[in-house]
Amino acid sequence: MKQRILKVALVQRSVADNDLQANLAANLDAVKRAAAQGAELVLLQELHNSLYFCQTEDTAQFDLAETIPGPSTEQLGAVAKQCKVVIVASLFEKRATGLYHNTAVVLERDGRLAGKYRKMHIPDDPGFYEKFYFTPGDLGFTPIDTSVGRLGVLVCWDQWYPEAARLMALAGAEMLFYPTAIGWDPRDDQAEQQRQREAWITVQRAHAVANGIPVLSCNRTGYEADPSGQGGGIQFWGSSFVTGPQGEILAEAPIAEAAVLITEVNLGRSEAVRRIWPYLRDRRIDDYADLSLRYRD
């Protein structure tokens, strides 16, 4: 099989405040450092310009949103062009007054906006009140074509759904990307915390296996308090990682430290893996109609 080696980087950071410009600048600095080490593609964590504000329902947080294209895509594009690197970033999109999305954007290495994906699965759980802020995506599960390949970009809660990964793969995605903000409730015991983290890693490795393509998942790290004081806050568990097409871990970041994780992905291996594990060939599409049901009563 012909090798296609792509050097990738994941930027895992802790966030201390809602200084949007300072946080973006820190991410851009990390992109430059990764590019200086040969990275051709850089993935940033979910909502990297601010604290994870969805722990409470607060209309003031809508001030953090911005248009796409807008200030962040302009700066991201400039650095992508300067460093000749593809950037996958995550923004709080203001589409119109009263209409907001959790949106991932892809900047091509010539600086242009190659495409965007609006998060489809929106959680509404203690500490993760995203339905208050985000309208579900309406762009479908459509990969974004770039100079380094066809990217299947998804966001955080999407990572728990095999349907999303499969639909991206069926549309020709060569890799899956998950900018993420996930962590523990510090009040949970250690055993429960470990189960949650291992489940998170396992389900994404399974997407790589079931579709025969690499997966890149970038999480934030550090503790962020609940502004309302009602909850225990979130201890983000880091652990950003890259897998190959058989779910093998190629690189993994620490749990509690910031990191610029750099590794190589051989995109040519997907061809070899799919030849010996031809899941797409053996799918029983004639008998899957019930997947469109909410539940089989």
The CATH architecture is 4-Layer Sandwich
* Helix content estimate: 10-25%
Overall SS class: alpha+beta
Largest beta sheet: strand ordering:
5-4-3-2-1-17
Can you count the beta strands? 17
> Tell me, what is the CATH class?
Alpha Beta
Q: How much is the average pLDDT?
A: 97
**Fraction of residues in β-strands:** 25-35%
Total domain count: 1
Pfam families: CN_hydrolase (PF00795)
Keywords: Acyltransferase, Hydrolase, Transferase
Organism: Candidatus Tenderia electrophaga
InterPro entries: Aliph_Amidase/BUP, C-N_Hydrolase, C-N_Hydrolase_sf
Structure overview:
This protein is α+β, with helices and mostly antiparallel strands and 297 residues long. The chain has a single domain, classed as Carbon-nitrogen hydrolase (Nitrilase/N-carbamoyl-D-aminoacid amidohydrolase, 4-Layer Sandwich), CATH 3.60.110.10. It contains six helices and 17 strands. The strands form four sheets. The protein has a six-stranded mixed β-sheet. A six-stranded mixed β-sheet has the order 8-9-10-12-15-16, covered by helices on one side. It has a three-stranded antiparallel β-sheet with strand order 11-14-13, covered by helices on one side. Strand 1, helix 1 and strand 2 form a beta-alpha-beta unit. Helix 1 packs parallel to helix 2 and helix 3 packs parallel to helix 4. The termini are far apart. The mean pLDDT is 97. This is Acyltransferase. InterPro entries: Aliph_Amidase/BUP, C-N_Hydrolase, C-N_Hydrolase_sf. Pfam families: CN_hydrolase. One of its GO terms (molecular function) is N-carbamoylputrescine amidase activity. It comes from Candidatus Tenderia electrophaga.
